[in-house]
Design a protein that fits this description.
By secondary structure, the protein is α/β, with parallel strands linked by helices. Helices cover about 30% and strands about 20% of the residues. The protein is built from 10 helices and 17 strands.
Length: about 350
């Protein structure tokens, strides 16, 4: 029998009726820094109820409705503009956490468009104070080696930030810059004459070993995890991360019954049943509750091979981020990113970023 289920529709700003996607979990965004540069746009579109997105591979324009959205994962190097909007999410009963890429390449000038390090660390603390611990994940991403940045330099940079975030985060996520695999990254670095060094497996192992020791010795006790990396660093206590993480979403939003239903999760109260046996793979929420995931596989098939993220809808666009990081994978060129940002600012309430 043919599937007769009708696709959802929305009414556009101009009155046209179109089909749309209705994601429950939204990613904002792997492709650009929405919190830093498009925060006003995003929260306006959230209020309107939809935004437009162009597929970067085939150029097809699509529409994303927020009617069923229950959780948003934000990605940013400067989420300071979000501070004034967090109450808007609470009003809509939409949960969130922030993947905060808080690196230190100030001296080397690899991230010329981001605010000073002290400002970004203070923003991290303000967000945690507002949202609660666990809602802001520290990323040092990517780890870049050059003729001016040694492995020892990276360890020192991590130590400095880690000491300041000790009481504010539960996790540190990192990745090793894989420059030769990304033509845009290589071209961007070659263009400005940065002499990068590729990570060998032995260098990765040495870094992981030193990071693991430092995590214990300095009393951070962070969960350490890599993003999209093939190498197995489990002997150093380093996990493969899920950046769009159903376990974390469950912990932060377990009382959202609609979201738990979507994730196919059962919430159990400890001690409620004398014969209740908690499975070894259950998700620990707190002292009172744990969760059982009935759907075992929810991986986003559109991501890299070693990415463990669950399914979500990313609403960002490439070539729109004016941070202008020298190693950027999301911009073909700085000039194009700046041009698109200027175009956006001419009408910042349009359906799409560009």
């Amino acid at each position: 029998m043919a599937n007769t289920k009708q696709k959802p529709t929305i009414i556009l700003d101009n009155g046209t009726i179109v089909t749309c996607q209705e994601p429950v979990v939204v990613s904002a965004s792997r492709s650009t820094d929405i919190p830093a540069f498009y925060c006003d746009w995003f929260f306006h579109r959230l209020k309107v109820g939809y935004s437009a997105w162009t597929n970067p591979f085939n150029g097809v324009r699509m529409y994303v409705s927020y009617a069923k959205t229950r959780f948003i994962v934000f990605w940013s190097k400067n989420p300071y503009p979000m501070l004034k909007y967090l109450d808007k999410l609470q009003e809509k009963n939409i949960g969130c956490y922030i993947q905060y890429s808080l690196n230190d390449y100030e001296k080397e000038g690899l991230e010329k468009g981001v605010p000073p390090l002290y400002f970004r660390i203070n923003t991290f603390k303000q967000l945690v104070t507002k949202l609660g611990k666990g809602h802001v994940v520290w990323r040092f991403d990517p780890m870049v080696l050059t003729d001016n940045i040694s492995l020892a330099d990276l360890i020192d940079k991590v130590r400095n930030i880690g000491d300041q975030l000790k009481e504010y985060t539960e996790k540190m996520v990192f990745s090793f810059a894989d420059i030769l695999s990304y033509r845009k990254v290589k071209a961007n670095l070659d263009k400005v004459g940065i002499k990068y060094i590729e990570w060998s497996e032995s260098l990765m192992e040495e870094f992981a070993s030193r990071l693991s020791v430092m995590n214990k010795e300095r009393g951070w006790n962070f969960t350490l995890a890599t993003c999209g990396e093939k190498i197995d660093l489990s002997k150093y206590g380093i996990l493969h991360n899920k950046c769009i993480d159903d376990d974390l979403i469950i912990r932060l939003a377990y009382n959202d019954s609609e979201l738990m239903k979507y994730l196919n999760v059962e919430i159990h109260k400890r001690g409620e049943d004398l014969f209740d046996i908690e499975p070894c793979d259950s998700v620990n929420i707190n002292e009172q509750y744990y969760a059982i995931k009935k759907k075992r596989k929810n991986k986003d098939g559109g991501q890299r091979t070693f990415c463990k993220c669950i399914d979500s809808k990313d609403i960002g666009q490439y070539n729109t981020c004016p941070h202008l990081c020298e190693y950027c994978y999301a911009n073909t060129s700085k000039e194009l990113a700046i041009a698109n940002y200027k175009k956006h600012m001419l009408n910042s309430q349009e359906e799409s970023i560009v």
